[in-house]
Design a protein that fits this description.
Length: about 290
């Protein structure tokens, strides 16, 4: 049976996509160029950012995600254009844009106070909407795909927010957004001058800071504070946590490894830790109910 094609109406205004400036706004998170079906679908569905244009490669087999991208763009009156696969690949900046590229307003960072409110002497720390903070702090991750994978795991595990350093850490490039699969449209991300001071500020607000470290004094499975307000801290690829960051963490925790490997990729380690803690928080919530 021949495969279905994308709706012809999308291809009526075929033109070479305009090139976008490659530089993100100075000091910002970036995120203006979004690639991949899931990432673009979530961009449109969340409606948190103005979307300037969506371009779809001609001749693609139809899919549910592609149909949703088209429907959401039309509903939001976002300009839809088509282009040849060659033209789309010329403007794409990730390895696999899946035939869809969108341009939007940059992702706006939030202040640290948007992740956890100051609550001295008035009970445990909370997010502004009353949830128990479950934060991911990313230090000096330089591979955009690793950052995107961490963000995707953070959203899946129920994290309430993310902290990124302004410098020495990759931000929201098209490759990071593609790997995040739309997570950036739902997670508040704080951009801070330095990870060390941010950890101090989180501790002052009543949030436990837990650094993932192969030489940590605690084992992840035995972490007593898993259900408390906490922030999981991940370090750079290869080097792990910076010395100052290690000192600022309340606890350094290791993931037990049972095979002949010395360490895990940073995004894998983050996923293991986030879901292990999320499971305990979920169980504790059910027991409390």
């Amino acid at each position: 049976m021949p495969s279905r094609r994308a709706p012809r109406a999308v291809a009526l205004h075929a033109a070479r996509p305009r090139r976008l400036r490659n530089d993100r706004a100075e000091g910002g998170l970036g995120g203006e160029q979004v690639e991949g079906r899931r990432a673009v679908r979530e961009l449109l569905a969340a409606g948190r950012r103005a979307v300037r244009e969506v371009v779809i490669a001609e001749g693609q087999d139809a899919s549910t995600l592609l149909d949703e991208v088209i429907a959401l763009a039309r509903a939001a009156r976002v300009p839809l254009r088509s282009a040849s696969p060659l033209d789309l690949r010329a403007v794409a900046r990730s390895e696999t844009p899946q035939g869809v590229v969108a341009w939007a307003a940059p992702v706006e960072p939030v202040e640290l106070d948007a992740l956890v409110t100051e609550n001295p002497g008035r009970g445990p720390a909370r997010t502004p909407d009353g949830a128990v903070p479950f934060i991911v702090v990313v230090g000096e991750v330089t591979d955009p795909r690793n950052l995107g994978a961490v963000l995707r795991s953070a959203l899946g595990a129920g994290a309430t927010g993310v902290v990124l350093a302004r410098r020495r850490t990759t931000h929201l490039t098209p490759s990071a957004l593609k790997a995040a699969a739309g997570a950036v449209e739902h997670l508040p991300i704080a951009l801070v001058p330095g990870i060390g001071p941010a950890l101090t500020a989180l501790s002052a607000r009543g949030v436990w800071t837990v650094g993932l470290d192969p030489e940590g004094e605690r084992v992840l499975d035995e972490l007593e504070i898993a259900t408390e307000p906490l922030a999981i801290v991940v370090g750079a690829e290869g080097r792990g946590l910076a010395p100052l960051v290690k000192k600022r963490c309340d606890i350094r925790c290791r993931i037990p490894l049972y095979g002949p490997v010395e360490s895990l990729n940073v995004s894998v380690a983050a996923a293991v830790a986030l879901f292990a803690i999320a499971s305990r928080r979920h169980d504790a919530g059910h027991r409390a109910g």
